[in-house]
Structures are given as structure tokens and as C-alpha cells.
Design a protein that fits this description.
By secondary structure, the chain is an all-beta fold. Helices cover 0% and strands 56% of the residues. It has no helices and 21 strands. The strands form three sheets. Strands 3, 6, 7, 10, 13, 16, 19 and 20 form an eight-stranded parallel β-sheet that branches.
Length: 207
């Protein structure tokens, strides 16, 4: 059976989450077990699709998780934009697993990203990701593992840092985006820092 798993929500299609006694900026996700969804798994959402502009300000949040599935990310397994999405002021730590033989996508923010219109931006500002690949992940990206084929995307990034641990076994590597093949996407990249001591990485500093 197809499944999604998230540290807060497994599957959210054009919905929203409200915090009663706290707020999103101080969210704590520290999963001692694996967050496992065979289609998508994320530290926050396994699948997230917005209906209107959405902003995730994670200034004081703690995101430290292990995710297992085909599309896995520090925040989102699969991310679909029907309007602008902003992720800002976040420090994300994630370990990616792959326990089956399927193609897999691993990203610090999202395993896969799809925009239903090029005018919708994924805006990444002041975000750091520290990622470990403990499985043979196919597409690895510091922010997004893979952009969905035939869906052009607009991604803006500034002050982004990706620290890589044990990701040399990824088939495709990108410091920001793992693969953008067949998407005709626009990547507007400001300051980016890539930290790695793994000389076996094959790919690019951005894509």
C-alpha cells in the first residue's frame, strides 16, 4: 500500500496545521525512530500541497530526523506548490535511508518538488541542512532531491548552507538541487556554501 509519513503530518493536501499552545517557529522534531513512508517521508510532512501562499519560519525550531522512503526530506517528502512557498531561518539535520530497490530522492528540505505553475516560487532564505545518506539514494540535493519532470519550477535561494556527510554513494549529487532534468526550471541562487570532506561526490555545487 502507498503511504506517507511525517514528524507532524503524513499527508496534507491544501490544508493547514495550527499550533494551540506554541507556534511553528519553536517546533521541535527529534525523532528517535525512523519516519517511514514508502512513497514519501519528511521530518514535518510526508506530503504537503498548498492552496495559497505558505511560509515556514523555523527560527527556533529543532529538526533532527531519520527518514526512510522513496522521496525523503528534512521537512517534506513530497512538496507541491499551487502558490508561493517560503522556508526561512531553519537549521535542519536529517539522515536518509533507502530500504528497498526503488529510485529515491533525498533533500534537506524536500525529496521532490513540483510547482503547478512557473510563477509560483519556492523561496529558501537563511537555511542550513546537515545531511547523511545511509542508503543508496539515487538523487541527492542539499535542499531538494529532484524537481518533477515536465513541471518547470522557480526556486530562489539565498544564504543557504549544506553540510554533507557520507553521500558519495548517491548517483546524482547537487549542493542545492539533486536533479532538474527535463523541467526547464529557473534557479535564482544567491549565497550558497557547501561543506564536505567526501572526495567521491559526483555532481555540482548547485545542481
Amino acid at each position: 500500500a502507498e503511504s506517507y509519513a511525517g514528524g507532524v503530518v503524513g499527508h496534507c493536501e491544501k490544508g493547514s496545521v495550527s499550533f494551540v499552545d506554541s507556534n511553528e517557529t519553536s517546533l521541535t522534531i527529534n525523532a528517535y525512530g525512523n519516519i517511514t513512508g514508502n512513497i514519501g517521508a519528511g521530518g514535518y510532512y510526508g506530503y504537503y500541497e498548498n492552496a495559497s501562499d505558505a511560509s515556514f519560519d523555523l527560527t527556533d525550531a529543532t529538526i533532527d530526523c531519520t527518514v526512510d522512503g522513496s522521496n525523503i526530506g528534512g521537512l517534506f517528502g513530497e512538496l507541491v506548490a499551487n502558490a508561493d512557498i517560503t522556508v526561512e531561518n531553519a537549521a535542519i539535520i536529517a539522515t536518509g535511508l533507502k530500504t528497498d530497490d526503488t529510485t529515491s530522492n533525498f533533500g534537506g528540505i524536500a525529496g521532490t518538488y513540483k510547482a503547478t505553475d512557473l510563477s509560483y516560487a519556492l523561496d529558501i532564505d537563511s537555511v542550513s541542512t546537515t545531511l547523511t545518506n545511509d542508503g543508496d539514494v539515487t538523487n541527492y540535493g542539499g535542499a531538494v532531491g529532484s524537481l518533477t519532470d515536465n513541471y518547470p519550477s522557480y526556486i530562489k535561494s539565498n544564504d543557504f548552507t549544506n553540510t554533507v556527510t557520507n553521500c558519495g554513494n548517491a548517483t546524482v549529487f547537487g549542493g542545492l538541487i539533486g536533479t532538474a532534468a527535463n523541467t526547464y526550471s529557473l534557479i535564482d541562487c544567491g549565497s550558497i556554501t557547501l561543506n564536505t570532506n567526501n572526495s567521491q561526490l559526483t555532481g555540482g555545487g548547485i545542481i
